[in-house]
Amino acid sequence: METHHQITVSINSAPMKGEMSVLFSGRGKPVGGHYIGPGVHDYYLIHIVLAGEGIYETLGESYACKAGDAFVIFPDILVKYEANKLNPWQYMWVAFSGDIVDASLSAIGITPDRAVIRDCSLQALKKLFRNVRGSLERESLAALGNMEASGWLRLILHELASKGEGGARTETATVQSRSYRQVDQAIRLLTLQYGQPLSIESLAHQLGYHRAHLNKLFKEATGLSPMQYLLKVRMKKAEELLEGDLTIAQIASSVGYNDPLFFTKQFRKWSGRTPTDYRKGLMSQSQG
């Protein structure tokens, strides 16, 4: 079944860990009614609408978007977006990741509950997005292309956050979705405190919510319960640590498990392999 009349994607072959780094960028012309989601991503994603119309849904809100509007998708937040059936949108997108991204976006007023930006300069953004894709398509010196693409990404963010006459306006969620800000705070707590003993009761107490209510909001926003999300955070961090020289017991302790055997059991459920076998696989890949 056809999903796009036209689509082009450029991929970064040398993304850097930790820094703000572009992963891929593209341009598409979906067919009418084409949708993505509901689902979650594990990276940040900016779409700028070039023409047509569509709907972006996040945190219990639905936003009608048209040419000149942009929407930002945050990791682990449940989203859906759909092209209008009669006048489907065309858009460009850039995906990126990095440890500093969340703080950088927040500093310029772009947050999960303020993720739709109106009245952007299409002329400026089209050029910047083209420059990102051009950087990623370098046939040599991929690391240099990565650095260049990251620079263009920062200029895209600057353009989205610009104020004043002709500047962009960030749309804030209504009262209905303001309670989801607590979900965002819960995500931050789980991401920062994954190495500590945590329970849904302690998390709800910190946020001032009843356990059942927080669990309901969290699942609506992310598709996972808080404890399922915590497991995901811990296992992904364990995968990173298994690339290094820490013992299995040290890794278990680092991600919140006092019992290495229980950690091994959880990791095997998560990845299908024991931590030791996972590490052996990494070593084989590096030697191959």
Automatic annotation (TrEMBL):
<dbReference type="InterPro" id="IPR037923">
    <property type="entry name" value="HTH-like"/>
</dbReference>
<protein>
    <submittedName>
        <fullName>AraC-like DNA-binding protein</fullName>
    </submittedName>
</protein>
<keyword id="KW-0804">Transcription</keyword>
<dbReference type="InterPro" id="IPR009057">
    <property type="entry name" value="Homeodomain-like_sf"/>
</dbReference>
<dbReference type="InterPro" id="IPR050204">
    <property type="entry name" value="AraC_XylS_family_regulators"/>
</dbReference>
<dbReference type="Pfam" id="PF02311">
    <property type="entry name" value="AraC_binding"/>
</dbReference>
<dbReference type="InterPro" id="IPR020449">
    <property type="entry name" value="Tscrpt_reg_AraC-type_HTH"/>
</dbReference>
<keyword id="KW-0010">Activator</keyword>
<dbReference type="Pfam" id="PF12833">
    <property type="entry name" value="HTH_18"/>
</dbReference>
<feature type="domain" description="HTH araC/xylS-type">
    <location>
        <begin position="184"/>
        <end position="281"/>
    </location>
</feature>
<keyword id="KW-0238">DNA-binding</keyword>
<dbReference type="InterPro" id="IPR003313">
    <property type="entry name" value="AraC-bd"/>
</dbReference>
<dbReference type="InterPro" id="IPR018062">
    <property type="entry name" value="HTH_AraC-typ_CS"/>
</dbReference>
<keyword id="KW-0963">Cytoplasm</keyword>
<dbReference type="InterPro" id="IPR018060">
    <property type="entry name" value="HTH_AraC"/>
</dbReference>
<keyword id="KW-0805">Transcription regulation</keyword>
